[in-house]
């Protein structure tokens, strides 16, 4: 009698494929959680009431300090809030969020995924970006004070002081740090001048030939000549300037660990509220964002959606947005937040007065489709 051994049982192919899929998914999941992405994530950041206080110091030394401090001018009671908003960034020039975090952010309304190069271009370090953000904040505060006082009828002499000179630029060896630029190509820069005005004059002249620049150095005027150079299609002379104003009284802004220029409008509104009788916001909880120039122009900012969610979470019911950001606002406004578009400080003040009065806001411009 011949005996035959039974054939071995074969595992169904579908089960083998299934296990391979599971293992592959696990491996991909582990890689996604560990491998850095080329992106950064924007999230709502801290909110600061410009007519309120901020805690400074730690432990027993911690104390509440008013954000806006006035010396040499009467101040008046304020109420409610005039919130400035910030955007938090997950990741930096060398440390990036994982792919898992990026995928999660894509499905979170209050967050946004952006290329890392948008904040950290190639060759730019985290420290360099932080330094620029700090300089932008300082300039923003100066512009906010100037805009608020000009709005109140003050005339402010202005100086453009050179803070940095780029090595190898048109200005290198010609203009020094600490120089005050008095004129460019025959146009005076001593009355309500700002960095934008200088950039526009340089762009208008272009790179076709030399230009005359008058600077004040060590108390004496000096005429120099240079030829702007093209960088990425833009005519530049290679200097960073700060606007220095002769203010009639002291205004200081005590805000720590926050950078960038986007709080300018809210600082200006806070200053106006502090130095004028009555409550500019009617005691309501108002938030907003926007850069500001000395002559009161409100400019676009980044992270508008994250700032709206930050405002809503902080309890604001009214949000003032730069007109140039409205296309990013439409369709993304959190429930319970009324968003109004503003292009100038004058308009922002008028809108707040209307809101404070309790009158109809139907005529106010909204960010709507």
What is the quaternary state of this protein?
single chain
The best one-word shape is: globular
Biggest sheet architecture: 6 strands, mixed
Number of helices: 8
Topology as H/E string?
Answer: HEEEEEHEHEEEHEEEEEEHEEEHEHEH
Average pLDDT confidence is 87
Gyration radius (Cα, Å) is 27 Å
Number of strands: 20
Widest beta sheet: strand line-up: 6-1-5-16-19-20
Helix content: 25-40%
Query: Which stretches are low in confidence, meaning pLDDT under 50 for 5 or more residues running?
Result: none
* Portion in strands: 25-35%
End-to-end gap = 90 Å
| Helix-strand category | alpha+beta
General description of the model:
The structure is a single chain. 29% of the residues lie in helices and 27% in strands. The chain is α+β, with helices and mostly antiparallel strands. The strands form six sheets. A six-stranded mixed sheet has the order 6-1-5-16-19-20. Strands 7, 8, 9, 10, 11 and 14 form a six-stranded antiparallel sheet that branches. The chain is globular and about 55 Å long.
Which characteristics define this entry?
369 residues; 20 strands; 8 helices; six-stranded antiparallel β-sheet; alpha+beta; six-stranded mixed β-sheet
Quick description:
This protein has 369 residues and is an alpha+beta fold.
Q: How do the strands and helices of this protein lay out in sequence?
A:
Layout: H1 13-34, E1 39-49, E2 53-56, E3 63-66, E4 68-71, E5 81-90, H2 99-106, E6 112-115, H3 126-151, E7 158-165, E8 180-184, E9 187-188, H4 195-205, E10 211-217, E11 220-226, E12 229-231, E13 234-236, E14 239-245, E15 250-253, H5 264-275, E16 285-288, E17 291-292, E18 298-299, H6 304-314, E19 318-322, H7 326-329, E20 338-342, H8 345-357
Parallel strand pairs: 5-16, 16-19, 19-20
Antiparallel strand pairs: 1-5, 1-6, 2-3, 4-15, 7-8, 7-14, 8-9, 8-10, 10-11, 12-13, 17-18
Helix pairs in contact: 3-5
